[in-house]
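Board notes, transcribed. Complex of a protein with threonylcarbamoyladenylate.
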Amino acid sequence: MSENLKISQAARALEAGQLVVFPTETVYGLGADAQNPEAVALVYDVKARPANHPLIVHLAKDADLPRWAQAISGEAEKLIEVFWPGPLTLILKKSPAIHPAVSGGLDTIGLRCPSHPVAQALLKDFKDGKGGIAAPSANPFGRISPTRAQHVLDDFGHDSRIAAVLDGGPSDVGIESTILDVSRIATHGLVLLRPGKISATDIANVTGRKPALADENAPRVSGTLPSHYAPRSAVSLVTAQRIPFVLSALKQKNMRVALIHHSVLQDVPDDDFFVRIIMPLSVKEYSRSLYASLRKIDGADADMIIIEQPPEGSAWDGVNDRLRRATQKTAGLLEKWIE
Ligand code: TXA
Ligand code: MG
């Protein structure tokens, strides 16, 4: 079947209230017609996601924004001009015409215009470009997001509630979009809810001010729950200097270890007691392969996954954020094992 035909069949399925998985430049999304509350409810069901965690609505390039959001500030307009289509989600005041199901009952809405050509083709075909596709990442709630069609098939291949999975190749960015709350500018300024490829510095370069980090009053974002993006095995972040010590301590305890690192590690020979993945050094390449690497290494069924602490700095905020959350559930376990 030709790509165009698949895309138009997927658009018809969405219009009929069915679910379609589609590629974006960040991760794959599990899409539904944003204006169809039953289809949206099905997304929550399939993902086993709590109903109070709102979905991002994806729009075509020339979508009519005021149909979805109101009180769009000059700063938001500037950000849209520079970063759309691309990996930036803006939280805006919701237009009263939009059904509250999609935004978990909040008076705001998350909007994003993805740059992936398949996503754009789908959005253009779906309701003649006038609709919105509500889509969370296409993974079971709390697990690792998919950056390949195969990841989606691994997680949901058996699920007949998904009408189609469009394959758009490996996701180019590899971690979820940056989420910036611009709905409370007057009282809170710009608030960064989830870091991503578009960094706080990139945002400041456009708006002239640095976004604040999410506060206690920030709306619920499941991607900002302390534990998220989690592999099944225990995970721990360790500095390059400490890795040789940690590995030998775990070996003494007969623990099966999986190692993900990016530096050249002098004192770590290849050893069949552990599997290892060597990551690229650039943040772009690192992000692109992060989730595929986590999924692969999770399949090794190690007792513990050791990940070398990535560099600090604004460009690495997205990666560090995801890894902190991936390790949250098993924080402290490593120290207990090797004490
Ligand atoms: O890159 C991405 O953003 C991917 C692709 C598929 O577009 N989507 C994604 O969706 O990561 P999801 O649902 O896994 O994460 C979206 C986050 C959720 O944590 C949700 O709570 C938050 O965005 N969110 C959505 N609407 C919101 C709103 N009105 N206020 C605050 N947070 C919101
Ligand atoms: Mg997600």
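The chain has two domains: 3-213, 234-338. The pocket of magnesium ion (ligand 2) is lined by residues 136-137, 145, 223 (CB under 6 Å).
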